[in-house]
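Could you please consider the sequence and fold appended to this message?
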Amino acid sequence: MGRAGRACGVSAVKSKRVPRAVREQQMLDAAVRTFARRGYRAASMDEIAEVAGVSKPLVYLYLNSKEELFSAVIRRESAALVEAVTAAVEPDAPADRQLWSGLTGFFAHTAEHPDGWAVLHQQARTHGEPFALEVAAMRAEIVRFVTELIGAAAQEAGCVGELADREVAGLAHALVGAAESLAEWANVRTDEDASGEQEQEQEQEQEQEQEREGERERQRPAAKDTAATLMNFAWAGLGRLMDGERWAPEA
């Protein structure tokens, strides 16, 4: 009787399954980590399955192929980044404060999710369609959002007619590009880091990666400081532009 009860208990434990949605997120987490560290071409489904703690057939069952898995990763990380930026903006604050808070949200998110940012900024852009198109759509959404903020700043400064829509859009593209470059400088792993890891045993790799991540964390500027750096670079010029001052080359 006792033996039967124990057998029943073991069976009940074995039959307990992780919900599909939870398991899928575990796979995506493992894929983000692997793609960021190995690169898209070198990353294998075997390693992704191992990191996720599941079998390779289960990864294929849920996400069909390496290409679809990579696309799913890009969509998830893109949506999370856009949400972080828009949620960080203080809606009732002055225009400069809104822009600064949005930039702070961007830098905070990329610092907290460096693997996700590496996938978006390094991997997805370099492997053609449809991956590059997924990232371009995310970037376009952020540019539209920043365009609205700069447009609101122009309206607040009373110079709506002086700044053409095309010029505002150009300023937004320049600001987003500068933010991406700063995020890469602050957060993204180098190719040297990745290639060095590929030559190590798994235990040594994890230990050394933790040491490197700790060193990067100590050297990484705070998100607010990085946002302030960009504001000091960009907003002073925007402020002068909105005051009617324009640069022009000497004749």
